[in-house]
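To assess whether the prediction recovers the assembly geometry, we first specified each molecular entity separately, as shown.
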Amino acid sequence: MTPLIEALFLQAGYNAALVAVGAALLGFAAGAAGTFLFLRKRALVSDAVAHATLPGVGLAFIAMVWLGGDGRNLLGLLAGSAVTAGIGLLAVEWVTRRTRLSEDAAIGAVLSVFFGLGIVVLTVIQTMSSGRQAGLESFLLGSTAGMLFQDAIVIAVGGSLAVLATWVMRRPMTLVAFDAEYAAANGVNVPGIDRLMMALVMAVTVIGLKIVGLILIVAMLIIPPVTARFWTERSQSLIWYAGGIGGVSGYLGAALSASAPDLPTGPIIVLVAAVLFLLSLFLAPARGVAAAVFRHRRFQRKVHRRQGLLALARQEPIHDELTLRVLRSEGLIRADGVATETGRAQAAKIARDERRWDVAREIHQDTGLTGRYDGLTPIEEIFAPDEIAEFDRRIGGPRAIGEGL
Amino acid sequence: MSEPSVTLAASGGQAAAQARPDAALSLRGLTVSYGEKPAVFSVDAAFPAGQMTAIIGPNGAGKSTLLKAALGVIPRLSGEVSVFGQPLDAVRGRIAYVPQRASVDWDFPTTVIDVVMMGLYRQVGLLGRLTGALKARALSCLDRVGMASFSDRQIGQLSGGQQQRVFLARALAQDADLYLLDEPFAGVDAATERAIIDVLKSLKAEGKAVVCVHHDLATVRDYFDNVFMINVRRIAEGPVATTFNGETLNATYGGRLAATHIDQLNLVEGA
Amino acid sequence: MGSEFVMFSLTPMLIGVLASVACALPGNFLILRRQALIGDAISHVVLPGIVVAFLLTGVVAAIPMLLGAAGAAVVAVVLIEAIKRLGRIEPGAAMGVTFTTLFAGGVLLLEQSDTSSVHLDVEHALMGNLESLVWLRATDWSSLLDPWALAGVPEELPRIAVVCVGVILLTLVFWRWLKISTFDEGFAQALGLPVGVIGMGLVITAAVAAVAAFDAVGSIIVIAMFICPPAAARLMTNGLERQVWWSVLFAVLSAVLGYVLAGYGPLWLGGDNAVSAAGMIATVSGMILALACAFGPHRSRVGARAEA
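The predicted structure of the complete assembly is given in tokenized form:
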């Protein structure tokens, strides 16, 4: 456990500390930038962007070697990856706009074709004399082992810049993500903001290549916003929740990975985020599964109870097993299906409420009130006691069609 | 009780819940809910055989939901469905369903005749041969809706009205006894509306039951024999002549239907 | 030339062709159902599926691997559905969460377990190794009739051949169900067809095709085979039957051209080493798609887009 604690408190060496800080910043930026994609329902565009970085990395390496430099210069490689990622993005847009193919097909085509091209370029590099130790494969899954100090600096600085850009642009991006048409009507340059969003996603992807790798960086853009969605209904706070979840995942993941061998950084960071997601999915108070299951069961019982009582009031037979079970368990009918004292009383109340509703709907023809006539809302919730007394007074007399309108 | 055939739900103690043996489609206690809000609550209904019935109600009243739940296209929370007195799965072959036009992707790579032939899939099974006779039947169904000359057209090239006719032709190919149509007149041109209603009336003449989700109150009286009025719950059900009146319309639509509209509907004949 | 071709190129090329066709067939329906990225998700979870199968059985064998990958695909699809419904999350995001998590789990398991002795490594899984599937016992074309030589074909070939034939048969047998449930799910349901089973069957078929192809071409390039040939085919015709034929043609063309370009292209350009055949196949399929997007006779949309 000690190595983990050391790593958590940044005591596991300069590089490990820088990587942990860089991963936290990256996670924060990715979570925040991913939020806009998520709200715009284009989460998987990031998948195309990420895979499209591979040929760029390879081509940048070749170019730098040709120019006589060190092919492994991280800044150069990242710049190259940004170029092909941008081309990939444009290709997705072009195919979606110009042809009948849908965006998902365009995303899949771009990600796989660019990746294939990248593999071709990598095999070319392997045959170059200087290419054998290029280590470009580490961009696939990320690798922080043997990272240079200056690489860690690049990541930390890049992460900070991405966080800053997200913060500066948060208002227009929220507006566009939430309601693009409204934003356009208000003079916001929607395509421009969209492109900016993508640029941010691209920047995060590129910065994350070294730590998380191009296949898993997608997770950093998608999982935190989805997780955050369970905890808040407000888009402004969604950004910060997602950023926080991403940051925590990045930091914890990097520290965990530094604490033991055979714990690859990228997958660990993703798995930490996934654990946070699962916890939220099940336990979040309003949108979590446990709460939803509980609510649904309660609701279903309510429906069956109500239907059962209506049937009792109309003296109809009940066939539905669940209805019978609900009525029995609440002591409203006996085992043989005959209504108990309480059952009859409750049924009578329901029948009276139905008659009250009839009157209410004749008197109040505005839908605001009578729209709640869904069979489940108690009439006492909608009308005041004196109004209900008035309904009862009308029910009392003989009811002729057309009267009281 | 010698009730008139008008039934205002829950107003009398009597409910029309008893599945009438002559009903083509009867529902009992049907409840469907999206989330916590019932879209259709505890609806009983009996759609008579050999007649045309309109399901009417305001937007969001659960008209289409009722139809889809009756067919098992969406799950029901509770309730029973019987068709010609039998459980749904035993008589699927006797039901033809015409979904809303907007529910499919009209960019799908297929032709008009292909879509109509889909109506035969249940009959021919997975590998049964689509014989010339069956193809001729599909063509004659297209002819019935006036679309025979379009049989090889790509479906994306059709107008909205033509798409609706193709869907109807597909249902005709099923040669069913009960036709359930979801808003067949929505957004179609006048010629198509006439063509569709002619076909539906000829189906009725053949003794088939027709049930339409319908939104145009002005045509209810001309097109249909019966009306089923719904707003989450059943409001009223019965012959148009006796059921379709200001009182039931008010009960169904609440204040959403201005009194002037109701007057224009010329509800009470000869009044 | 003849003998060299049979020995070094015939089997990889055949495997490439069969893999492409096996993936392109279900790909047609995935694309029309707007589920193209299910192919993406499936091919990512093939890796964890195979790793788990290996850890459970301790051997690298075809059957456990196929089962493991198909199982992982089912798990992934169920998880995606569950997340979509339970968490009310849009499908793309639900997919992204699921497959990246499973993939990360697969990589971690692989790193943690001792698989160095067997040929299971991440890069191989991602990139495939088509070139290595050579037929060493072959001497020339007559080896095709030589039982001893035939017994020595790489085991991937009969495996992908069986899968490819299976996919073709399934497509033919369930053609009508696939067509109608893809075009109009509500109508198919009203007919009483098991649309849920059909959808799941399609995904499992795609998963089996993916895992059989995966061995040869790697898991990412499998996505290209799912999507590019059918997508290009969609732009060539407005009939489903013809679309499927076009997709098969494009799949074969990508595999053959890609393999040839990877093997001989560098020589023509003056280099002396081949490049990745799998990568080249994906690249060629992408170029075919790009051409179809630019010139395909039915490239633009005519019908109204479906709602939702």
